[in-house]
Amino acid sequence: MSIVVRDVREHELDSVLALNNAAGPAILPLDAARMRHFFDTAEYFRVAERDGTLVGFLIGMGSSADHDSRNFKWFRERFPEFFYIDRIVVASRRRGGGVGRAFYADAQSYAELRYPQMACEVFLEGVTDPVLLFHGSFGFREIGQRVLVRNGTRAAMLMKELCSHAWVEETYGKTLPDVPWIARVRDPLQAPRSTGTSE
């Protein structure tokens, strides 16, 4: 029962939206317009399948993205270059089965060729110990905290150094070899921005 991580397909957006909005308080809800905006603009938007069933997704982008998330802007005010994980969702029945680790391994493989760090946040309200432990075991460390304007929830702002990036940049600069496994995960359309906002 292998996990397949691959690019999201347009016809899957409703299913991805349902996964997002069923994830509980650890993930901010979205509407269809915002999900479509991510599909059109996110640098990295991948889903995980197990036995042919969609079991999760991860959305990420680089620090130069035109992204209106306040958490993203918090990182950008402090760091010049990073890959930001806007959200990762795993279906509740699949949590603890390796889907999150598969996503983070895939995202890191993509990001370390292009960015020196990965950034994300974890809400500190409710039962967060397993989430914090997961991120800590994957090499993330807390670099600050932020209170979300929308609902007053406190978030731990996490960063992970990508140790291979310095070598890649020194060896190849910004011109990576033209081979399929290095190609950008997605080539997002430059569609007009949605009016929705996220933290």
TrEMBL record:
EC code: 2.3.1.-
Domain of life (superkingdom): Bacteria
GO molecular function, one term: acyltransferase activity
Residue ranges of every copy of the N-acetyltransferase domain listed in the record: 3-164
Protein known as: GNAT family N-acetyltransferase
Keywords, alphabetical: Acyltransferase, Transferase
